[in-house]
Amino acid sequence: MKNANHFIGVFDSGFGGLTILSGIAKELPEYDYLYLGDTARAPYGVRSQEAVYRFTRQAVSFLFSSGADLILLACNTASSESLRRLQQEYLPQNYPDKKILGVLIPAAEEVVEVIHGRRVGVLATEGTVRSGAFERELKKLDPEIAVIQEACPLLVSLVEAGEQHSEAVQSILEDYLRPMMSEKIDTLVLGCTHYSILEDKIRKIIGDEVKIVSEVRAVPPRLRDYLNRHEEFAKDLSRGGQRIFMTTGESEKFDRVGGEFFGQPIKSEAIHLME
Questions:
Q1: Contact at 8 Å (CB) between 205 and 174?
Q2: Which residue is catalytic, options 25, 73, 192, 216?
Q3: Is pLDDT above 90 for 104?
């Protein structure tokens, strides 16, 4: 797809990034957005680091060729396993005038702002936990923070299947959260964009004393700050209020499930990613 517009691209392995897009589109409604969900190959959390990098590189290449000037990796697994390499190797060689951002650093910054203790739980995919990226970013900001991580391999698949309201999800959440509660965490990071749609269920399990950090709330104001600090780059982004949705999977399912994540009906185009 070729387009004369200069979009903000948002990429996720599936539906979860739609919650991020919803937030930033409300914070910055004037910009044009291009969303891509790689639902045909989700979830990324169980993939090897090299596979995640290859898939993410294909996605950002497609988004750049489709008119994106700035891409947000709304997928935590892609952010933790691919972002640095894309910024250091791929961009300079292929798109030196474009930008790729992630969601981990905004979440880590939010933790440091709201934390009232130093025991932070991180719910994330296996890939994100394996990378150690959240612990690394949190300790950069506060070396005294204790990070308790829990890989949640079952949640993304259930959410992608539209089963977020099922009893199975409730039971699985309780199993994942129990070890963290025994560790007396005072702050919980939802380290996967898919988990934000489960926040109400999570809150009922952990109670009101534990602060929840969601990238849905952390990312939008920080993206606004980024664009304000880089006015020379932001001025070229087009402002027509467009929202374009694409998926590598079945568009009918993407529209049905994705609309719940985005908070309003969507209409997507099915595309195919390649090298």
A1: yes
A2: 192
A3: yes
